[in-house]
Amino acid sequence: MTQKDRIIVGVTGASGTVYGWRVLERLRKIPSVELHLIISRSGERTAFLEMGKHAADFRGLAHCSYPIEDIGCRLASGSFQTAGMIIAPCSIHTMSAIAAGISSNLMIRAADVVLKERRKLILMVRESPLHLGHLRSMTALAEMGAILAPPVPAFYHQPASVAEIVEHSVDRVLDLLGYPSPEAQRWDGPRPAHLLGEPASEPALPVREGLSKKSTPRNK
User: Fold this and answer.
1) Which residues of 67-197 form beta strands (DSSP E)?
2) Fold assignment, 5-177
3) For 15-40, what is each residue's pLDDT tens digit?
4) Which of 2, 44, 84, 119 is most exposed, with minimal Cβ within 10 Å?
């Protein structure tokens, strides 16, 4: 029997638990993926405040889940092979602890293991603005091999809802993880002027209803 790709998903208490939820939902649909979930106590609280969901709802999307205090479980050992880890959202506290190598709970220890074993670690850091200490921690993590992927929205696909903004960020991190979606909206450059009937600088994607050029806000 072929072993599935074991992906660790961490959910911290930073705002944006919808990112972790959608990452879990999207990866659960991939037959070759086995999901291992760690959700912090703060993550549980934020999930309820922002989405009305309980930890049990998140655990229901994973194949395996672990208490944040279970520092002795298999995810804490490099001998347990995984394909990588994504923390979505990733709080500044968790990011900074990973950068410092302070393995005080399973979330941080699992991330530390992924780094030391040279596996892929993706952090959807949710914080703004950033002070110098944050930036130095990010630099240290990048030097260690982590991928810092803050959920910064793009607008070239002209999203019509918050859900579409969330999906675009999730699409990007799934790309980084190695599971690109065929449904992801991707920039393909401006259309040639002779095909578009307009200047070549116009966006290649169609304008959504309600976002025509006439209704686009202008600076006054």
Assistant:
1) 84-90, 121-125, 147-148
2) Rossmann fold (3.40.50)
3) 999 999 999 999 999 999 999 999 99
4) 2
